[in-house]
Design a protein that fits this description.
2 copies of one chain form a homodimer. The first copy, chain A, has 138 residues and is mainly α. Chain A is 48% helix and 6% strand. Chain A has 6 helices and 2 strands. Chain A has a two-stranded antiparallel ribbon. Chains A and B meet through helix 1 and helix 5 of A and helix 1 and helix 5 of B. The first copy, chain A, binds a DNA duplex (30 and 30 nucleotides) through helix 3.
DNA sequence: CTAAATTATCATATTATCATGATAAAGACA
DNA sequence: TGTCTTTATCATGATAATATGATAATTTAG
């Protein structure tokens, strides 16, 4: 569903949000904890920083931090940097005219499904993915 | 959403279903009409024939035909040969434990969305995609 | 039997994604 | 200032998806 790169980005942001503390986290630590190649992760984090999702600091006390609170960070903000999310909403067969009113019944149904996917990424936040093990009944 | 290959396959099957007639259609004609590289399309059609979606005939009067009526040919039958459709239903982050009851609220929502995508491909037929321009009101 | 037309198959090229390794630039602190 | 740690950047390799070109195998028709 997501490219490898987008999934790594998501997991990295989740890790930062989960760590909670305000101190910067180093690439090395994240790469080890998430089992992602360090230089590859480094490039991904850099892209996230350029997009203002993270902030980075160089030097001895450097590392990466969230730039925004997890509650106001939609998954789409992250994924969009690596995957073309809106592409999914176009006609399944690449027919250009299916975007407007001439679409057939099946394509209308497809757009409905694709729209739900899009809404999920736009409305789900990083914070939503953090609340795991939610009061499991025995 | 779909790989290039799966989209080509879908469009090729649609073309065959649309042509209607029972005579085999040649790769060259389809490749030209659909603007798909001929040898690439040839390999895709061969895969579809091996999967019993199409039948093929060699020789002078050869070509490809649908093996089944469009009404009973689900899109999933075609797409599954080229894309891993069920992959989409697993946890967004690759967390293995999210398949069972321990999934968090967000993952449950994701599985719901992914399930709708899956149902679309399983229940929509080739015939559904054929009925275009359906009695447009002015 | 021969020739023409077509699918089937193999070999290879091209491109994008995924990943690794090495070096440069910058901040922290003694 | 000088040194250490870290991010930033560049160069390269590995793998899979996409695409092309050439040849073999098969069928039809004369």
């Amino acid at each position: 569903m997501l490219s490898q790169t987008a999934e790594y980005a998501l997991r990295a942001v989740l890790y930062l949000a989960d760590s909670g503390s305000d101190q910067p986290v180093r690439v090395g630590e994240m790469a080890r904890a998430l089992a992602i190649p360090q230089n590859y992760l480094s490039k991904i984090l850099h892209q996230l920083a350029r997009a203002r999702v993270l902030t980075s600091n160089r030097g001895k006390l450097g590392g990466f931090r969230l730039a925004v609170a997890p509650e106001s960070m939609a998954l789409a903000q992250i994924v969009v940097l690596f995957d073309r999310l809106d592409e999914r909403r176009r006609c399944l067969l690449g027919r250009p005219q299916c975007s407007d009113g001439t679409a057939c019944a099946a394509h209308t149904r497809w757009k409905d499904v694709a729209e739900r996917v899009s809404v999920f990424f736009r409305e789900t936040t990083v914070a939503d993915l953090l609340q795991r093990n939610p009061a499991v009944p025995v």
